């Protein structure tokens, strides 16, 4: 190989390395790596309290609202949550408690506590299997696939330091930036949301849940359904846990009469009391208890 | 440019090339109406006029164009060796560098033409069949098509370097296709290796649309250009030292 060829190869090789390094370093300075670490860390959580809020508005009017506070103890396999749902015309408050051998449910409609017994052993077995499945190798593989799929978005994540020391991550996607798969699945979900609600009336707790009353009264979008914007926020605390998530999804479309609607789905989730949440049990003594069978 | 028109004529007069031009033009035109009918039936607008050319581009750069390029590369290098055409060119009083240059330039033009054909026909389809066709979308599309030329050229030069080891075009084509698909799959298995392959950037226009000019995009651009120069040099070296 003569000198010219060698030097050309050498210079291009060096430039190539420089290019890849620059790209990699600037990509990792964006929030993507922090996001990944914080998500991975979530696997090691023992307990937390989650405050979840979801609302759906149609042309600015709120038509559906869910808010819930859940105490989760993953180690002790216990959870307790109170949920309130408002679909504009009806509202409901639910109280749910579950541990490894029973599920307790109460709504604000009546004073009865519905108790469903679980065969505990079966439950524990399933849990064990799940934990075994995520080996470090598998986690790495999943990470690899995730990295390749999101490569065009990784450097779009903006970071911001918040006053409380946490870091805020933000990803905004406009219509042309949302991949077609995402477009399809969100549009599909929204279009079929009312049908999905019907599936919920399954006989959990002997039908006492009556979730079918709470189906959101969505405008029936029939044409031009399109996700126009997605804004995602995340908050990572100093221990690198993902303690806050927020998503705003904007969907536009037309109903049968040709009126255009803009639906905005707004989701927030805040975690606190990480690893220091104690799930308080429900005292059933002196209460009306209805035993429900599977 | 010496010998360029010669190479271009050889490529363009092939029946397969003409067929590929026609297929490229008709694919978006046929997809457009069927997408429109489907969308009206199910109600979602996944493809509107604004983004239709981008959707077509993403299909083209991942599957369609690399295959056509592999075909062109194996025709222009081992194919000519096989048919004993190359010897006739080599006896002309032109340096081997110029011959090599003209071949690469010819493929580059071929790729440009293919991109242009797909761009025009997908925009026509978008304008005629789909709603919300905008000038902004057309500009953005044009920009994306231009940008896609770079990673595809990088892959082409990579293939040029390898196919010169083969004496028959069909073997070279098979090898190129396998090589390309390996490069596509590899980043999913080893993300670290993927960073060093031009297939990582094959949809990099999305990055430009998402972020505009950023350090990451600049770094990847430097990488692609130096990859091109590296394999241009290596390919030329192969071409020069080879005895025909």
From TrEMBL, chain A:
Highest taxon of source: Bacteria
Protein keywords: Signal
Signal peptide stretch: 1-22
Keyword match Signal: yes
The keyword Signal is annotated on this UniProt entry: yes
Name the UniProt record assigns to this protein: Uncharacterized protein
Species of origin: Oceanobacillus arenosus
Automatic annotation (TrEMBL), chain B:
Pfam hit, one: ABC2_membrane_4
Transmembrane domains' residue ranges: 18-39, 51-73, 104-122, 142-165, 177-197, 217-237
Keyword list, A-Z: Membrane, Transmembrane, Transmembrane helix
Protein name: Uncharacterized protein
């Amino acid at each position: 190989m003569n000198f010219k060829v060698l030097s050309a190869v050498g210079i291009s090789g060096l430039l190539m390395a420089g290019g890849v390094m620059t790209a990699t370093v600037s990509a990792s300075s964006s929030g993507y790596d922090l996001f990944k670490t914080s998500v991975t860390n979530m696997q090691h959580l023992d307990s937390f309290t989650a405050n979840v809020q979801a609302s759906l508005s149609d042309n600015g009017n709120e038509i559906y609202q869910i808010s819930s506070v859940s105490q989760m103890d993953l180690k002790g396999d216990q959870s307790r949550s109170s949920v309130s749902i408002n679909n504009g015309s009806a509202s409901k408050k639910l109280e749910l408690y579950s541990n490894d051998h029973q599920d307790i449910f109460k709504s604000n409609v009546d004073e009865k506590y519905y108790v469903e017994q679980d065969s505990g052993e079966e439950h524990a077995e399933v849990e064990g299997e799940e934990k075994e499945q995520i080996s470090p190798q598998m986690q790495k593989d999943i990470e690899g696939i995730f990295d390749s799929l999101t490569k065009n978005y990784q450097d779009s994540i903006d970071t911001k330091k918040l006053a409380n020391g946490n870091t805020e991550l933000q990803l905004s996607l406009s219509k042309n930036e949302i991949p077609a798969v995402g477009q399809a699945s969100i549009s599909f979900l929204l279009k079929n949301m009312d049908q999905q609600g019907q599936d919920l009336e399954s006989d959990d707790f002997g039908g006492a849940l009556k979730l079918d009353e709470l189906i959101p009264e969505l405008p029936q979008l029939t044409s031009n359904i399109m996700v126009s914007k997605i804004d995602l926020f995340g908050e990572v605390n100093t221990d690198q846990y993902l303690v806050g998530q927020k998503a705003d999804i904007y969907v536009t479309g037309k109903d049968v009469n040709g009126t255009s609607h803009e639906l905005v789905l707004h989701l927030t989730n805040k975690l606190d009391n990480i690893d220091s949440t104690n799930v308080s049990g429900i005292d059933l003594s002196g209460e009306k208890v209805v035993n429900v069978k599977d | 440019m010496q010998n360029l028109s010669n190479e271009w004529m050889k490529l363009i007069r092939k029946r397969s090339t003409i067929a590929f031009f026609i297929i490229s033009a008709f694919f978006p035109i046929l997809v457009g109406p069927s997408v429109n009918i489907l969308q009206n039936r199910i109600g979602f607008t996944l493809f509107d006029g604004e983004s239709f050319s981008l959707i077509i581009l993403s299909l083209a750069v991942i599957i369609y164009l690399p295959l056509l390029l592999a075909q062109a590369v194996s025709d222009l290098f081992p194919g000519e060796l096989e048919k004993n055409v190359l010897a006739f060119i080599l006896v002309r009083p032109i340096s081997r560098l110029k011959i090599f240059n003209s071949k690469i330039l010819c493929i580059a033009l071929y790729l440009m033409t293919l991109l242009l054909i797909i761009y025009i026909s997908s925009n026509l389809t978008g304008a005629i069949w789909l709603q919300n066709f905008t000038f902004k979308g057309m500009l953005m599309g044009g920009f994306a098509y231009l940008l896609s030329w770079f990673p595809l050229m990088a892959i082409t030069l990579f293939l040029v370097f390898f196919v010169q080891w083969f004496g028959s075009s069909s073997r070279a084509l098979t090898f190129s296709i396998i090589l390309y698909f390996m490069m596509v799959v590899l980043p999913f298995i080893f993300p670290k290796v993927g960073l060093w392959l031009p297939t990582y950037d094959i949809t990099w226009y999305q990055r430009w649309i998402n972020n505009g000019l950023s350090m990451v995009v600049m770094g990847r651009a430097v990488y692609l250009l130096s990859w091109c120069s590296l394999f241009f040099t290596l390919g030329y070296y192969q071409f020069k030292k080879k005895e025909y």
